[in-house]
Amino acid sequence: MPAVAPSWTKGLGANALPWLLEQDDSCPGVRYFALTELLGEPADSKEAVAARRAVMKTGPVAEILARQRPDGTWGDKPYGQKYTGTYWSLISLWQLGADPGDERVQVACESILDTGFAPSGVFSSYNASQSGYIHCLGGNMAASLAALGSSGGPALMKAVEGVARMVTGDGVLPKGDKVTAAKGPLLQPRFYSSGTTGPGFQCMANKGLPCGWGAAKVLLGLAAVPESRRSEQVEKALGQTVEFLLSRDPAVADYPTATNPSSNWQKFGFPVFYVTDYLTVLEGLALVGKVGDKRAAHAVEAMLAKQDEQGRWARDYAPRSPVGFNPGKVGAPNKWVTLRALRVLKAWVG
């Protein structure tokens, strides 16, 4: 820890960085991310290398990898087995800071890229047909695979292109098209009533209205692609995603809904799967350099108001199903949630 706290920490009630930099076997990834992302330590520095080595030896990453099957998967239902199946395990490994160079992580990524999406290049939630595509899964998988070593690879880039087209609608067959997978492999994505029903984040889970949760995950996924590798289609989708998420105050999150906005928007959590908080939106905006947009200002201020006197944030939300590791108690100050908030604060100030 530097003798003088970084200038961007002045918005904190107290400096929580020493807490995040502790050697903690229950969450070693926090120290790694705090060193490299918050303090700017090079990933190949002695401290950072040691921290990432610890991530792979103790704590949640080691627990998840211990359950991995020889073929690189976790069970037979990659999506349906919440939250310990293959898709969910990879999402957890991404958020926990697993080492992309680890052979087990590489095998997991290869398995998903081989079997996880349809010929048209869109991720499927249950089989190799376009009917399984949903925005939250597409965004999460793109972000996970990019972080865990597949960034820029041709298979992932094809999948990301599919995510982008499902946002823009360009080159996507409309809902109601009579082409079916039974007639042969579909080489073009299509909107389905069983999942994504049209462009602009339309989703059956939201009664066919644009889904803020899905948009937040798409933002993370598209932002994970190196800027130099983003196609015109990806850039177009990225712009539409940012504008949609900033069309409402993220802290209020009154995105289109047939009911009332979910109270989970205001509950910061970890890990973050498909249920989403507005901190996720801010994280995505930070990644693409848009968290300084005046339309996000109130959300950042609301985020800062949730810290305690020690500059820490609590874990407000926990998924209903077990996640396969201990992410901390609900209602208690949480290193992972605090790390998420400080990423946003640094980008906002910087």
- Tally the helices: what do you get? 13
* Mean pLDDT metric: 92
What is the terminal separation in angstroms?
19 Å
**Which outline best applies?**
globular
Unreliable segments of 5+ consecutive residues: none
Strand percent estimate: under 5%
- Give me the secondary-structure category: mainly alpha
Proportion of helical residues: 40-55%
The total beta strand count reads 0
Cα gyration radius (Å): 19 Å
Query: What series of H and E elements makes up the topology?
Result: HHHHHHHHHHHHH
Report on this model:
- This protein has 350 residues and is an all-alpha fold.
- Helix content is 43%, strand content 0%.
- Helix 7 (135-150) packs antiparallel against helix 8.
- The longest helix has 16 residues, at 135-150.
- The protein is globular and about 65 Å long.
- The mean pLDDT is 92.
